[in-house]
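S., here's the first fold you wanted:
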Amino acid sequence: MREVKFRGYSLLTSRWIYGAYYKHLPFTPSPSQKVDENEYEHLIIKDSFSDWQLPRGIHYEQVNPESVSEFTGLKDSLDNDIFEGDILTVIGKNREEFTAPVVWRGENGLPAFILDPKYVSREFFLEDGVLSLVNSDLGLAVVVMGNVYENPELLEVNKNAD
């Protein structure tokens, strides 16, 4: 079974929090009340610390909703987890390279995490940007360089690569 986990940038501590994601409405609206999207809290939930044989609760932190991203189930060449929104540098066998963000595409009944095709060099055969080729035997080196939330400048150099 694949590991399902999320991350989000904490509004309290200004650091990444890893765990389960929950979109929480902190009140019960009346049947006629319209709820605005900004009234929700976006939470990352994880286990708390406890000592041997003592009850262990859960801990949650409110995160910036724009930063919430899901783990793809893949790791880069340095064994780092790859999340939606990560910016990857891909280096081919002939040392050609490009940098692209990981995005979610859930259209045509084929949901998948992909490398954004706007950034993928045509020199690479990455069948529609499918991220599963990252850990294949094609001789690619893949490294997480940052993420779109903290490092958007990493994408400026490589946009619309040809």
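And the second, which I think is the more interesting of the pair:
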Amino acid sequence: MASSVRLIGFGAGVAMLMTTAAAHAATQKSVVPPGAVPVPPRELKQIYDNKTWQWQVGGGRFSEANRSFVAWSSTDGVDTYGTGHWELTNSGKLCMVATWKTKETSGKNRTCFRHLKVGDTIYQKREPKGKWYVFKSGNPWSKDEYSKLIDEDTVSVQALRIQTRIAAK
């Protein structure tokens, strides 16, 4: 039961991000050039701190305060929200650790993305089995996943609405 709870909460919460990232990866060369190095935590912090990662439906907010993370999504009419925190590692990983809740289920999940850099280009892949794709080009453009990181918090209010709606049932 616990794994199905995690799968439902995670699947509904992050599926849109994974679909978008997978589609983007399909259009990119999936091999990182030689000489790639992990993106340092301080640089990852600059990229994600106080940003909203917009997904096809929903998004995730990376707050500076206590590195809190809040997200929401909706898949096949099932609304979900997640709350937790985000972590950075010296190996170039960004991890989102959250408890995802729907009307029916609740489960904790850890999702990580690794970032490598060659010059000004940053590559990203979902750990452990994702494919590499260009996350941020040396000259960023609208097709980069990086362009989906915005300053505005478009997540917290909707996540609270979903939480309130779920709690009322």
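Why I say that: Residues 2-26 form the longest helix (25 residues). The chain has one domain: 2-168.

Talk tomorrow,
H.
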